[in-house]
Amino acid sequence: MYRGELSLTLWALIFINTSETCILRTHITAVEGEPFYLKYCLSSPVHKNETTTIRWYRSNRSQERVELKQGSSPRITLWDYVLEFWPVELDDRGSYFFQMGNYTQQWILNITRRNKHSCFTEKQVTSKIVEVKKVLQITCENSYYQKLINSTSLYKNCKKLPENDKNPSIRKNAEFEDQGFYSCVFSLHRSGKLFTITKTFNITIVEDHSNIVPVLLGPKLNHVEVELGKDVQLNCCALLNKNDVVYWIFEKENGPDPNVHEEEEKKAVTSEGKLHSSRILRIENINENNLNFLYNCTVAGEGGTDTKSFILVKKDMADIPGHIFTRGMIIAILILVAVVCFVIVGVIYRVDLVLFYRHLMGKDETLTGNAYHNAGISYLMLSLRNHIKNH
């Protein structure tokens, strides 16, 4: 009786210790050059059987499983429920399998390159949003490697903070200048070699949104010119609190329009620390039923509600579009310049043009031209004599 209770108690302790560091996620990312491990989650004592053989496998590029054995690689060690990498390298990416009896657990491991120009890798960052004046807490802990860790350092934007190297941590009321990247760097030794593990938090400090009244940005009524058969996107933007929502109201009496789609809400923090949200309503293949209908966007929360409306109106096709008008003006100016240039050339080279025309027509008008010339001279001489006699 007591032996059974003792066995159950022992298994409960093993289960609690295993559950703290086991890996439940099936898709995992590790950083090149850092120690890493895979650990099977022991769900109950039923899984443990002294006669059951535990095996580890890795699938190669041909998708065939290759059994991993102790000593097959100086970097990889395995024992019972744990597979360790000292350290993990880019070539270690792939699928890994833990097999115990008829049960199999699979992990897909991806390895990201270490950033040689920074103290942390951007793809391995945990983001946290903290309101100003609220508690900012950063604790550097690594339960699996805790017994092997020699020292721990805390960095802000890759600059070491003057904290205790044994258990550095931060607990304070957040200020805007506290925003940044905080990296916990664990140093540990194994078999005479030094290894480091980095855990980074991206801390964003925002304003206290507890008393903010949600508001939609822009005018309350918007007329949007559209063309039939085309698509349009209506963007609704708001400043709001963390738990407030933005949504569209666009259903008609005869049911929803299959051409109208509401996209997911997107939230982001502005440079001023305010929470900004946007939600797009996409209307495809616009028809007459979409015109002159109110598409309402609403932001709602504990601080209140706000609504703005969009109305689609048919674009007046009689108006000349701006790009067509500009193109027509350019063509007209080019034609005018060409005409002016032609006139100027004609005035400058008029004699040559006349001679070329005569040559082209094959006519000799020399005599006729001389006769006209002599008659003109005689007329001028006669006029001059009459003028002298009169005076």
Automatic annotation (TrEMBL):
Its main location: membrane. Forms a ternary complex with IL18 and IL18RAP. Within this complex, IL18R1 is involved in ligand-binding and IL18RAP in signaling leading to NF-kappa-B and JNK activation. Interacts with SLC12A3 in peritoneal macrophages; this interaction is increased by IL18 treatment. GO terms for cellular component: membrane. It is found in: Membrane. This is Interleukin-18 receptor 1. The chain crosses the membrane at residues 329-351. Within the IL18 receptor complex, responsible for the binding of the pro-inflammatory cytokine IL18, but not IL1A nor IL1B. Involved in IL18-mediated IFNG synthesis from T-helper 1 (Th1) cells. Contributes to IL18-induced cytokine production, either independently of SLC12A3, or as a complex with SLC12A3. InterPro entries: Ig-like_dom, Ig-like_dom_sf, Ig-like_fold, Ig_sub, IL-1_rcpt_fam, IL-1RAcP-like_ig. Residues 1-21 form the signal peptide.
